[in-house]
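## Example pair
The file below holds two records. Each record gives the amino-acid sequence first, followed by its structure token line.
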Amino acid sequence: MPPVTRAGDIAKARQRFFAGGALPEGLVAHPILRSWQRCAEHGLSSSARPRAEPVSARELRAVQEQNEKLRRLTRSEVESLHAEARLTDSVVILTDASGFVLDMVGSLDFADRASQVALRPGVIWNEATAGTNAIGTALVELRPIGVHGAEHFFEPHRMLACAAAPIIDPRGALAGVLDMSGHASIQHVHGLGLVNLAVEQIEHRFFEHGFEHCAVLRFHQHGEFLGTAREGILAFEGDRLVAANRHGLRMMGIDWSALDRTELRELFQRAEPSTEIQKLRAQRGDAFIGRMVQPARSQARPARQVGREPEPVFSPKVASALTRAIRLLDANVPVLVQGETGVGKEVFVRHVHAASNRCGKPFIAVNCAALPETLIEAELFGYDAGAFTGARQQGSKGLLRQADGGVLFLDEIGDMPLALQARLLRVLQDREISPLGGGKPVRVDFALVCATHRPLEQLVGAGAFRQDLLFRIAQYVIELPALRTLPDRMTLVRGMWKQFGGPAAGIALAPETELRLANHEWPGNYRQLAGTLRALLALAEPGSTIDADALSPEIRQSQATMSPAAGNGDGLPLARQTLDAMRAALEASNGNVSGAARRLGIDRSTLYRRLLWDKSAG
């Protein structure tokens, strides 16, 4: 989310606009000012209470079903942002193209506060209803936008700090909005960057299905971006352009109006169908590289090998636990994975599934903390047609039946309501599921893995978790270590940066940046580190070096001299390696301190200070 506008400026802007009707040029960002003007034209009053009212549970369910494809396409990114949102006491919100809130996950405490201003599923947050807000304003502006505190039109919304980005489908239609909202009292430094990056991934995923009949061209000026969410994508029926992503249109210098009226030969001088990467030249002279994949009827589309979620960097201890977990899963022994939020519990379990005897069968992940309590029973156990108001006419199998033959992963099992725990225990004992509505019991076969960051034994003592269920799900317990306890954090930082594509894009982390990343405590563990690295990568220019000034304040404040736990495992202290790198840069710059600092991507004063410290210490 964007930096907080100076309180004095925003106060003056509101006074001029709402009291005197004057335009506060220079005091507030132009998108915010345009939104205020639109809200005034809608007849809204900033001091009035917003008119937003939630629909019924039945209506909410119906709209969610209408947008099931969007929800499915965005689920991975929503879950990835979920951990970041909980760490920053925020929520992640998905809306449809009208601003209707479909889903909300994240901090339960903030969700309760947000519901006081009707920020909840089942409510429309467009500008005409909710005034200036990140969701509604992104819908109108069709661009990522942050709205902080008093920038909101309505007074009650001052409590919010929101960042949102529109989701555009391959035909140029607005599909929805992804938003992250939190307390206005907190600076959410990377919110807008993370949301925008997540939307890029979603728009890239649109092309994974539904274009088998098209010739799909994937291209970029730099080959390292092929296969990533930054590549341009153009889809052709015959020679006619029928779909694209925003990167593809931008690189070709065209807009959505080019669809259905532009041919391949008008865009490129030559683009041969081939699975091999080829050089391309646009008709206007720009040079690209890419590949043109023919429709499925003439050539099977190759599996994507790049642009996927990077493989985790497992420590030897976790790698050993992974081997044990695979054996236990193959023996159908229930495993409980424990660890702090963000240590990679789901990633760990997915790798167990991929290496097990059930690797070709379903992997069904259920976040027990993310499902609404009113819907969790129907989602898990399924229901027959007409089982309750708002139920689908054809009924629903439920997530447990979908896991039949494969692996059922119950994440955050400690947040499952007690009543549901009793039903789950019966399923684990009988291996039968009875859908809501009195349907006939159905036999199921799945391997069970559960995960939690909560102390289940303490929950048992407090009466919040069933002891008999604990015994059933925790026949073997694996503890994943917190990132701050790892003995080799520098190698982890470098490995993750490489896997996210930083070096391939020519983007480097300055030595001091690496040091501060490696020495940070990372209360959110891998997810927080991954989110920070993604944000740095999203905001950096190709070929640049990221210095420590790009880090958030709390990371910048981490000591640049390493504790033993942050070492890089090669036997040399990191402080010594840093000094060696500084001396090498100084020598390569013929003793020019400014030149050496530029090579390292750090401030010259930092270089002076470290070298003087070494001299005095020696």
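Second record, same layout:
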Amino acid sequence: MPRHPRRARTAGTVVAAAGVLATSIGSPAAGAPAVNRISLVSIGTYASGVFDGSAAEIVAHDPVTQRLFVVNAAAGSVDVLGIADPTEPELIGSIIASGVVNSVDVYDGTVAIAAQADPAQEPGFVELFDTDGNPLAAVRVGSLPDMLTFSPDGTMIVVANEGEPAGYCAGDEGDPEGSISIIDVSGGAAGVTQDDVRTADFTAFNGQEDALRAAGVRIFGPGATVAQDLEPEYVAIDADSTTAWVALQENNAFAIVDLASADVTDIVSLGYKDHSVRDNALDASNEDGRINIRTWPVQGMYMPDGIDAYERGGRTFIVTANEGDARDYECFSEEARIGDLLLDREAFRFPARLQQDQRLGRLKTTTAFPTVEPATELYSYGARSFSIRDAAGNLVFDSGDDFERITAAVDPENFNSNNDENGSFDSRSDDKGPEPEGIEIGRAFGNTYAFIGLERVGGVMVYDIGSPQDPRFVEYVNNRDFDGDAEAGTAGDLGPEGITFISAADSPIAFPLLAVANEVSGTTTIYKVLPVVGR
């Protein structure tokens, strides 16, 4: 495996701001063989009318009823949208759960909802409904069930129980253990009981803190055991429904879970991205007044949020959206800026110059593992990219600095903008840049694609991942209006969070669709996936 896998080739059209601006990037030369690719066209939006209230987070699709199920945390429910006509999605009703809703999935007429308890450190719930919202069953799972998904064969629901602490102040409710719940639904959702719930936990790794840190796993919560410190975020499952990969975002790792035995078989560090090498550049400052994508002596912690899995050549590959996330509590915060650190003068020749605000001084970093002062290495949150890894966690491909370079080329006036206000040029460069969060894999017109949502500047990146070692950039689409007013609801889609792909076979219009839930604008937008034959 090369240390720095090759960046994606570009083969398509970049589109932004609902098609207002289009730029050709890397188009094949005249006379080249035809290249099959796709284009996303926004055809319909449902607007909740709630700004910055998490009114559209995760989205799932039922092909029988042609309904979308959208997590509406603002209302404490799941909104049910009819999309028989995807150009006019309509609110049919809502499903009310027993607590704050974090995730939803649908399989064969069963809607599964993950809801946290109050307080969130207590065991949460998974509640099952039919697609009309009638309750079927409910079971307890681990603390703070953050994400759930049905296995591809429909026999299990796998739940990532994040187990976040209430905080680290005196009197806080403590730090529950992270875990993965596996719910057997093979006998039908209506018959599910607590006996059908098994738990894969991390207690077998307690006492192995030093070995895990030596391997690169971030174990650093004050006084936490390994089981308390690991915080499952997102689940991907192989096509055979035998193995799950679970993102441990704050720990910069993922867990490998044997679903038959409900055991965590391994915890794998995801390593670091070297931003000092070509093609791994980043814009590190929000106070230099310009787009400045360049190499820096910084190691990016991948820290994925959304992950997905697909098969190619008989092998399973894991695709990750490398968002990054810090622990930031009232009585414990790892966040700092590189300008705040004491740098080792032998490692860095001119530390004062490097720590100027227009250079690396503003870039968010960690004071926890793996930082040691005086610092000989500098770390940042996330990798501003998506990656492909093999089943053992080895890096096969990373998109490098594609996301920042593409968004800069498309709309330089709004580069690295925030997601809750327009006129915020460059405001996210010191943090996590465009902040890739959600990821979905879909197959259309004979090719396999990854769709990656950029939480901050907005929009969806599309890559052809038919070759895991050599993906091709296809398109960037952003249904955001930078001339609009975000709070007034005239700025389009803001803060894409959840993405679901609808195949042509499952679509109401016989064309593939992509549904995107946008957390900040509270909108759910449907894209039609069209084939494009290029020269």
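Notes on the second record: The two ends are 33 Å apart (CA to CA). The longest helix spans residues 402-410.
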